[in-house]
Amino acid sequence: MRTPLVLHAERLTKRYGRRPALTDCDLRIPRGHVVGLVGPNGAGKSTLLQLACGLIGPTSGTLSVLGSRPAANAAHLARVGFVAQDTPVYASFSIADHLKMGAWLNPSWDPALAKRRIAEVGLDPAQKAGRLSGGQRAQLALAIAAAKRPELLIFDEPAAALDPLARMGFMRSLVEFVGELGASAVLSSHLLSDVAQVCDYLVVLCASRIQIAGPVRDLLATHRRIAVDPAKVPAMSPTGDEIIWAEHGRALVRGDAAVRAGDAETVTLEELVLAYMSRAAGSAAAANAGTAVSR
């Protein structure tokens, strides 16, 4: 029996004019995970999430969300909750007004959940949204998204502009909502500490392409750091495994041989992500240089 997928992309491509935002992306993410989508600025993270929400369409390829075309109909829209990067709210509306609007727009709205979460984070329903702090706006946006009782919550770097204390509170609320709803979640972030804190599935997106994807535990279990000759770095490590990135006499490698080697060292999530991002950036730079020479 196949595991239901929360996101399924095949050769998904999105261009803005001649600039590629996503190129031939293949992705299969099973339900039941909190997914960390990481990559540098301009990697295509927001584009992927906007495609998943149906806000934009692909140039080519296919993408399904919860088994259907994104935003296929009103019923499908109700199954997805989205918190954008700037956690938009209506400045002249009170918090209570936002909850009333959420109830009017969403047939599966849970008023008890919304009111309880607003009270738990100390928000006054009568307060105007325009007078909220960044952390308070983020908590309001999260409560509204979760009160839809969606099957999938999508977050596009919602905590990027928050101070450390507000960000910690937001991440705690995110985990609580996912657990209470039994939902899946996709969190885009360039803050690896946030990803390490709450995510059990990782997608690294760089240079418009998926570099690696999988459960965090499995990825960490199949990568190791080993010593290599800095003057002579082969495509394969001395153990016969693939070298992802090498620098200063150390290499991050992927494969069974390195895992079994006694002198191989375990890697952190940050080391793994940076290795794949560095490899992608190096490949993109080499390709751009080759294009410039050919002209």
Question: Would you write up a description of this structure?
Answer:
It is a single chain. With 295 residues, the protein is α/β, with parallel strands linked by helices. The chain has two domains: 5-213, P-loop containing nucleotide triphosphate hydrolases (Rossmann fold); 222-294, no CATH class. Helices cover 37% and strands 26% of the residues. The chain has helices spanning 45-52, 74-77, 95-105, 111-120, 134-147, 164-181, 192-198, 216-221, 256-260, 269-294, and strands at residues 5-16, 19-30, 34-38, 60-65, 80-83, 152-156, 184-188, 201-206, 209-215, 223-227, 242-247, 250-254. The strands form three sheets. The protein has a six-stranded mixed β-sheet with strand order 5-6-7-3-8-9, with helices on both faces. Helix 4 packs antiparallel against helix 5 and helix 5 packs parallel to helix 6. The chain is elongated, with a radius of gyration of 21 Å. The mean pLDDT is 88.
